Amino acid sequence: MPRLPIDTVLLIVDVQVAADDAKFGALNNPDAVARMADLLAAWRGAQMPVVHIRHDSTNPDSPYRPGQPGHAFNPEVAPLPGETVIGKQTNSAFIAPDLEAWLTARGATTLAVCGVHTQHCVETTVRHAGNLGYRVFVAADACRAAEVRDLTGRVWPAEDVHQLQLAILHGEFATVTDTAALVDAASLARTIKDRFGR
């Protein structure tokens, strides 16, 4: 189980209705959103910071485009009033200047990341965070990938895409772990804070 500071930020990436759109093809990990909800409940219970990243696509054909039904947050992990929502128009959430400014203003150095899709906005956000010097944990079972057709026409199953992408991230840009370990770490961080005031 990792040890987390009490100001570790849970970053929930692009968990909007559009994530399940048929245009993305077959997806893996049908329990991913339930695991995201577990993380969100743990962070709220520990009174640790949460940031919801919302993709605001500028592509007129994208289900993530503002004004489309898919732009809405998945209700299982929708933000509560007062929780931070940061919109982005690119793959990496750090291209939107609001995220790094928000983290810097709070002195945050550690992130726990979950979301969709593993090989798109999760991957680019995690790489960017790692390159900026953040300590990053990725909950493997709280992320979800889509199948990929390569340039030869071969279709790579979503689970293969998911596992390969996590393996590439692990150790270089982040520590890949699971929801249970991060939930326990959040609980421990809160216990230490309550007991010692730090």
- State the total count of DSSP E strands: 8
Neighbour order of strands in the largest sheet: 3-2-1-4-5-8
> Approximately how much beta-strand content do the residues carry?
15-25%
Distance between the termini: 19 Å
Overall mean pLDDT stands at: 96
How would you characterize the largest beta sheet?
Answer: 6 strands, parallel
How many structural domains can be distinguished in the coordinates? 1
Q: Given this structure, which CATH class is correct? A: Alpha Beta
Helix content class: 25-40%
Low-pLDDT sequence parts: none
**Pairing-aware structural class of the strands and helices?**
alpha/beta
* CATH architecture classification: 3-Layer(aba) Sandwich
Number of contiguous helices: 5
CATH superfamily: Isochorismatase-like
What general outline do the C-alpha atoms trace?
globular
What is the ordering of alpha helices and beta strands?
A: EHEEHEHEEEHEH
Radius of gyration: 16 Å
Q: Briefly note the CATH topology name.
A: Rossmann fold
Describe the overall structure.
The protein is α/β, with parallel strands linked by helices. It has one domain (about 10-195): 3-Layer(aba) Sandwich (Rossmann fold). The chain has helices at about 30-45, 95-105, 120-130, 160-170, 180-195, and strands at about 10-15, 50-55, 85-90, 110-115, 135-145, 150, 155, 175. It has a 6-stranded parallel β-sheet, with helices on both faces. The protein has a two-stranded antiparallel sheet with strand order 6-7. β4, α3 and β5 (about 135-145) form a beta-alpha-beta unit. α1 (about 30-45) packs parallel to α5 (about 180-195) and α3 packs parallel to α4 (about 160-170). It is globular. The two termini are about 20 Å apart.
